[in-house]
Amino acid sequence: MGDWKTIITIGREYGAGGRTVAKLLSDRLGIPHYDKEIITLAAEKSGLSEQTIRGPEQGSGKTLLSWFLPRGPMSAYDQAILAQANIIRKLAEEGPCIIVGRGADYILRDREDVLNVFLYADQADKLAYAMDTYGDRPEEAEQRVRQVDASRESYYHYLTRAKWGDLKRYHLSLNTSPIGKEGGADLIVQYAKLRRAKLGL
Q1: The pTM is what?
Q2: Which one of 1, 15, 29, 158 has the largest count of C-beta atoms within 10 Å of its C-beta?
Q3: How many Å apart are CA 97 and CA 70, to the nearest integer?
């Protein structure tokens, strides 16, 4: 689909299928998708280690805007997020793509060609994903789901000062449990086409 012009960002709860849906969209639309690759690219560009990008220390509470103001040295957390933000902007400038997580909806908020999606799932499916993927016992799966979602929520709030998963911040919010990952990808494509037509993009 060489005429595809939309950048898609995917926020997601753990086990909702963000990576899978991104891959499905990438295959169908013929555009690249980025998830953990952003960590590698950010490390290469910034000179920070992948470990620093992936798991930085607790930050100081600044938002992206404040990083461009002369307020002294940045923490490792600030540097890691800024490095990823720079990569996300660069990828968006290169053309249509799918970007998973990392507050991309906020980072690209000034672009009209961006469609922001949030994926969530029923708790039972999230637990099943953890048990199938990691062999967790039910109590371990519950802890994993809780910790990962809490980490994503904390990261998003630190970056944006807004609530992660707030439906008003996204163009489309989808529960992947009733429709599956394939169905989720189908709906995102349909919505994106309708939105492009409406906006004349």
Answers
A1: 0.85
A2: 15
A3: 33
What count of Cα atoms within 13 Å lies in the side-chain half-sphere of residue 70? Answer: 0
Q: Mind listing the pLDDT tens digit for each residue in 69-84?
A: 445 566 777 788 888 8
The span from the CA of 91 to the CA of 126, in Å, is 30
**Residue 199 Cα to chain centre, angstroms:** 24
Look up tokens 């960590």; give the residue: 39
Sign of CA dihedral 12, 16, 19, 23: negative
What are the tens digits of pLDDT across the range 144-199? 999 999 999 988 998 888 999 998 999 999 999 999 999 999 999 999 999 888 88
